[in-house]
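OP here, attaching both records as promised.
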Amino acid sequence: MQDIQPTQVTALLNEYRLNVHNEPPVSRAAVMNFINKSPIIDKSVRQKRKSGSKDEDSKWAKARKAQAQMTLDMFELGDTEDPADWDNFATIGEDHIKPLWLPGIVAWDEKHTNIRLGPGGNMEYRISVKDGVPTSPANGGVLPPRHSVTTVKQPGQGRAAFGSSVRETDFRSGDYYGVSSLLAPFDYTDKWMETPKEFQKSLDHEKADKLAVGAIKTPTGRDSVWKGGYAGRYPDPVVADQKLREEVGKKKVNVFDLIDHIWRESKAVMAGTIYENCFTIYHDHLKIMWCKEGVEHMKRIGMWPHLLKIVKPYHNLVNKVWQDCVVGDSPENASGLDRTGFQAMQQCFLFHVALTAKLPLDDPNKWNLGTPAAATRCMIRAWEIAPTPEHTAKDWIAFRPIQQMIVEAEGRVVPDIVMRGGHRAVARADGSGNLDSRYRNRQRKETLTVWKVHPTAQACYDALTTASQADLLEKAAIDAKNYDGDDENEDDDV
């Protein structure tokens, strides 16, 4: 298990402490101090092997402030309104703001994960062992071989869009729970997203290409199967068009497909709730989605009235480019997603990659980041269990206070709120002042517990937590009590 990283080790250790000894969790800093001082653990930068060769724009800040103020005004209106009275939500014009309720929002954002040819993490931790027992090298312990990671100049990416939302146990109860796993991701791995015009050009190019190929006879003098292009090979025009789109769709995706997916899944997750007719969809300013054809399509399918956007009463506060849309580069608004949700998902799939590292490459239960498709599969699997409903709810509860922070900051970037649950600063536990650097989720002991293990990795997890492994964890837990210091080491991002 030398490929597992300290964050995941801390989570496993805390799981054992809680379930076996009913003891409180320890911090990652304590584990790092144990690793740094242990004579049997070798820590080194992971070897790499080559495969071959703020200054904010003032207009942007003003638009951010206007959007945040509008969002707060919408929440205030929602505080006095009953969602059941807003069946006409979709018919309200753009001259007025609409009420907004936290459980009536569905947020969407894209997540890209680079492939990685080898173990995760920038640091490598090897345990010196003698006869199966951790032993110092001075006493005959032997370190296992080092594991390298292969770097590539242009790594492929797993690509998918994810949605997030919360619900209340009772109306206005304030008791929220996340339902992000109910929103199916949109997978566009290995595909280039295009505007409708660009996609039509790709279709036309493919048709012309096959028509040209069909004009060339085979080496034996026979007619090509592509004689006459798609129309020649598939006499039924419906079938011909279907085959054409399937071929182009292998490498290209029409942004209409993303829009349709967001609309379909958002309606489905809100169906049967009191927000069924008055829910709001938030998506960061994805330029290709807010293009003229995209807007026309959203209006055509009925999605437009449900989009969070800067409406006419606030147009005089923003540049024309942001009127009737939203401001980009605002990850703190993507609650349950780019704010902290994707971090939880990433930590989850990295843990599972390490957990299943010994499985054969062709085992369907193996998690790996070796190809774009495999990276996307890891993200989608992890999204089923991470972030947890409680984590998602906590992230969403911070959404409204964050809008106030943005207004107070005049629309400029508010330091650290993206990864700090909505707090400007966090005091040290001992009362000695504020933290010197950005506060991270993994610095909170209560978050350093094992995520729900995915069914595909359950057998590997059970094997890891056998009695013999538990003994090692118990010893590490006892030793870790003797250490508690600042964490100066970071796990590597994907």
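Record two, same layout:
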Amino acid sequence: MRREPVLNTYGVHWGTASFDGRGNQVGWAVFGVDDRPVLDGNGVHKAVRKYDERGNEVEWAFFGVNGEPVFNRSAVHRVVQEYDGRGKSLDLQFFGIDGKPAPGPKGFVRVMSKYDAQGALVEQYGLRPDGTKVRSK
């Protein structure tokens, strides 16, 4: 019995992933039944990730089938994150396809965090597009 190729629930037939020498996933891309690039259910064909020397994910971005910047389901194109020496997130920033700050999933363009000497989160602020700071802890 011959089976026809099928798409998963995201409209994808198959995908690839690439990894760096430390085993971190640095990218992925998805394809249709004709082996041509497709957009998944989130409107993304390819994602690219970057890591720091400690293995923390410091940047990720999303692209369309022609390599053009696209928004993911959270309406951001690129995310940049900074960490302290313990691997705790200090600064998380969201950007649109124009390279300008864009609201992330919770409506903030930036989330800043502070920790005590034991590594416990003691303060966290979200920055809204209009510049308003919102304390979340």
